[in-house]
């Protein structure tokens, strides 16, 4: 089975993360796991309504355009049904596949910038396998596009690097890929931009791509452990306070600084969370949250059908 993931939130521990701060921008640097397992009712104390009723109420408000500035915070879970598995599922996740197929004891290593500079071949193999097939937007991506078409989308900030949001036709100015993207490649030393097709072609042959300026290694414009997040991410934090509704889909909100985005939302703004599990560390927002528990793709399709 080909590896299909890399491209989700290149940095997606489903547990709690600790970041080291360097200068103004956080560096994705180290991971600390919090094994505490909270139930939904411990995280959100208010009674959970019937799922279909919450979906209907939300869809009616969308239809009536009660919300005109909707912000989506999305992660790996919205692309799983496209065939791109998450990182940490025991048998099907990216790390499990890497460990089995490439005989690497610590799969996270290949997403470290230091490891990449020492040995880029394992990462290039993942890239080669990922691009051996084509991926298509899911109903979750299509839901965001529907909101965009209805002129109700403020911003979509995503941890994913697969670019499926853009494949739906959403204007790139409305999408912020917090952990980078695969549309360009650049030198790890001088940051010279290199055509991504050149890089991908070399990956097929497991041939290193070297910078034509300084002869150092080239990598895609995705955020590795040990690298800064893009400036667009920090600019997007200033946009969130303008939202009148926030939808969280496919993310555990366990990766910082992305997880802190939820705290930029106004205290009276409703937050709809569409996930199988409720994210941790959000109990302080319990009065704003409507939790729609279940399959993200299925729920997204129901909402699309309703507003159409």
From TrEMBL:
Keywords: Metal-binding, NAD, Transferase, Zinc. The active site is at 179 (proton acceptor). SUPFAM superfamilies: DHS-like NAD/FAD-binding domain (SSF52467). The keyword Transferase applies. Residues 48-308 form the Deacetylase sirtuin-type domain. The keyword Transferase applies. GO terms for cellular component: nucleus. Its cofactor is Zn(2+). GO terms for molecular function: histone deacetylase activity, NAD-dependent; metal ion binding; NAD+ binding. Zn(2+) binds at residues 187, 190, 211, 214. PANTHER family: NAD-DEPENDENT PROTEIN DEACETYLASE SIRTUIN-2, NAD-DEPENDENT PROTEIN DEACYLASE SIRTUIN-5, MITOCHONDRIAL-RELATED. This is SIR2 family transcriptional regulator. It comes from Tetrahymena thermophila (strain SB210). The lineage of its organism: Eukaryota, Sar, Alveolata, Ciliophora, Intramacronucleata.
């Amino acid at each position: 089975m080909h590896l299909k993931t890399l491209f989700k939130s290149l940095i997606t521990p489903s547990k709690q993360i600790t970041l080291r701060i360097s200068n103004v921008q956080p560096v994705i640097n180290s991971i600390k796991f919090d094994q505490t397992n909270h139930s939904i009712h411990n995280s959100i104390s208010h009674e959970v309504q019937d799922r279909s009723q919450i979906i209907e109420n939300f869809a009616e408000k969308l239809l009536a355009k009660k919300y005109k500035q909707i912000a989506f915070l999305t992660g790996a879970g919205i692309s799983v049904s496209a065939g791109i598995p998450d990182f940490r599922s025991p048998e099907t996740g990216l790390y499990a596949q890497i460990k089995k197929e490439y005989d690497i004891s610590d799969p996270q290593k290949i997403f470290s910038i230091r490891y990449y500079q020492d040995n880029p071949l394992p990462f290039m193999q993942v890239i080669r396998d990922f691009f051996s097939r084509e991926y298509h937007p899911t109903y979750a991506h299509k839901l965001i596009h529907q909101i965009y078409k209805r002129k109700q989308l403020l911003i979509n900030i995503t941890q994913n690097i697969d670019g499926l949001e853009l494949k739906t036709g959403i204007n790139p100015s409305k999408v912020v890929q917090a952990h980078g993207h695969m549309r360009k490649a650049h030198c790890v030393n001088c940051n010279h931009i290199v055509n991504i097709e050149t890089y991908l072609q070399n990956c097929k042959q497991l041939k290193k791509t070297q910078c034509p300026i300084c002869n150092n290694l080239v990598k895609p414009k995705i955020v590795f452990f040990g690298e800064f997040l893009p400036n667009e991410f920090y600019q997007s934090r200033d946009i969130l306070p303008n939202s009148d509704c926030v939808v969280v889909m496919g993310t555990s909100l366990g990766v910082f600084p992305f997880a802190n985005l939820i705290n930029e939302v106004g205290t009276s703004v409703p937050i709809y969370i569409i996930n199988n599990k409720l994210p941790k560390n959000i109990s302080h927002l319990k009065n704003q949250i409507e939790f729609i528990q279940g399959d993200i793709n299925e729920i997204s399709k129901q909402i699309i059908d309703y507003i159409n």
